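re: ur question from yesterday

yeah so i grabbed the chain u mentioned. its 294 aa long if i counted rite. heres the sequnce exactly as i have it in my notes:
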Amino acid sequence: MNRIAEKIRNGKVLVSDGAWGTFLQQKGLGPGECPEIWNLNRAEDVLAIAKSYIEAGSDMIETNSFGGNYFKLSSYNLQGKVTEINRAAAQISRKAAGADHHVLGSIGPTGKLIMMGDVTYEELYEAFTVQAAALMEGGADALIVETMSDLEEAKAAVHACLDHTTCEVICTMTFEKSGEDSYHTMMGVTPALMTEEITGAGAHIIGANCGNGIRDMIGIVKEIRRVNSTIPVLIHANAGIPVYKAGKTIFPENPEQMAEYITVLADAGANVIGGCCGTTPEHIRRIAEIIRNQ
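ran it thru and got these structure tokens back, copy pasting raw so excuse formatting
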């Protein structure tokens, strides 16, 4: 199977998957429960989520391993199961993906900050190394370092993935809108700075996820493209800006509302388009229809 970046260089716009956490909650994930432990004790439910996105038209699916690093799992007293949990996560998604779809091993932030003295760069690097290696062992052919806000943590993860696996490496950060076409992570990183630093770190694909609905992702892609016109760009947008209503967090954009911006987003320079919080297989199905009819 050709690598994702190679398919993009051949002119394809690819479709990624949608939300996992929202889906797990619908299947019964309780408050305070570790999502990643489902890879071991509720594997069929995790497999059903992965299959639903493949059936909806995704070219690639992630793994249920976003919080599968040592530090996050420690809060559930599961730090001894990092390799087992991540390997199982990749095996489940590979089973759904088969041989002709990509599996993106999801690697999220640790919740620890170097600048606050919570952790050292070396400790982050080691944690990401163990997670990345287990995801590749389980069948991931790409690794997605996602929802990052701090450049040093993002680079530690990217370097760990590049140094200890043969997988393609994707890195996305989460930006908030801070003005007219102005975006920053919570640590003050702009899309332009992210592009320079993460491309320099060796990532094969960069982009943004979460934080924004699809309309605001257009401005982020344009800023990336002002800095680098060739690096492949992946976008996972939320189904709109979340609204807290009647004790629940609601993501308001339905598939048709998201679909209005797909062509504009691709024209701005996005090469892989999928969803983040609040998106469903129906959102992905509509995205796939638009992309493949262009």
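noticed a couple things. The mean pLDDT is 96. also The longest strand covers residues 205-213.
anyway ttyl
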